[in-house]
Fold this sequence. Notes:
This protein is an alpha/beta fold. It has 2 domains: 174 residues, Aspartate Aminotransferase, domain 1, CATH 3.90.1150; 247 residues, Aspartate Aminotransferase, domain 2 (3-Layer(aba) Sandwich). It is 35% helix and 16% strand. Strands 4-13-12-11-10-5-9-7 form an 8-stranded mixed beta sheet, with helices on both faces. Strands 1-2-3-16 form a 4-stranded mixed beta sheet. Helix 6 runs parallel beside helix 7 and helix 12 crosses helix 13.
Amino acid sequence: MTQIKDISRERSAELYAKAKTYFPGGVNSPVRAFKSVYGTPLFIKKGDGSHIWDADDNEFIDFCCSWGPLILGHNHSKVKEKVIEVMQNGMSFGAPTALENELAELILNNNKFIEKLRFVSSGTEAVMSAIRLARGYTKRDKILKFEGCYHGHSDSLLVKAGSGLVTFGETSSAGVPKSFADETIVIALNDPEALQKAFADFKDQIAAVIIEPVPANNGLLLQTKEYLQLLRDTCTQNGTLLIFDEVISGFRIGFEGAAGYYDIQPDIITYGKIIGGGLPVGCYGASAEIMSHISPDGGVYQAGTLSGNPVAMAAGIAQLSELLQPGFYEELKNKIEVFVKDIQQYADERGYKFKIFSIGSIFWFAFTGQESISRADEIDPASMENFKILHRELLNRGIYMGPSGYEVGFISSAHTKADLEKAKSAIFEGLDLVFSK
């Protein structure tokens, strides 16, 4: 297998050069800078269905899906029609609208794990608010999180683990005071001993344990139901709240997300842009009793001028209505199962050190011989060089993936059988090139 010619990025490169004069690193979110892969970032000008087009008119089958929320694909007709309809009456009021009630009812009537929710404008804001609620509810300060789980860029969660079984977080960003990080305890995923030690060391101090029940920001670090149940039981025994950060897994692996998939009741759940058709929105929800502590009912303050924005609510109503159609998730599951099986079979038959992990409509490429990876320290950083080659070869063959080997991919209802067959062929050729070197 020979390497093919790189796609043209002339226009994207021009736009990137100009962007660097306006924005730090030329981007408004760091991973977009393509620092982990070859070439300059692609500037996207159009998306439709499962395809996107860049500024140089290159066409790609998109498996990034705006980092997950576009479960119906780009520019879905019903989402677009609902948004245009609502926009005729205005785009922002900073006041209640009936659309907020409609979207909330759609979610709550089909999700037994939460009784009330609060709309916000991003997943980061949802998690930040959930943490504040947990602290206000329990009257405790410390938060326990897991290495390899990302919860947005709020100060108390933008931390990484140090050495040892149980550590205080070390700031992983300049500008985060050490005193903030000191309120965050960090342990490895899938380590029951570390969990028990943390609760012994900080008895009656931990307000909440927060986890991505499907960790998907640092690879796809799938956890067992038994471990997630251990978290639930440990939190219950210690008067600590369990927060499921479902910004990625929510509505992706089923309408009730990971809570429904594993049938485990967290105390607070956070969701992201998927509830707004990909527009800037998020929410957090819990029991009516816990949510009664949020202002104006209770003493935990949280507010937002754009919370419940009518355009985002409209997109969410249209998108979630489609997800509730009979057979929606079954059809998506069937697509990804064939996709994953065929790719893994191809790699296995050639003895390639490669695994594709998946859950729901989420998948992840790992250059490893391990049958499972459940912790961040089980990922070989050197393997990212292989992804770098694969990413370039996929772009050259019209397949768009997130520009980092630690990022997951997504399949949408818009991906056709032809799309998936073309993608598989490109992946086969890319893997042949990676393992020929």
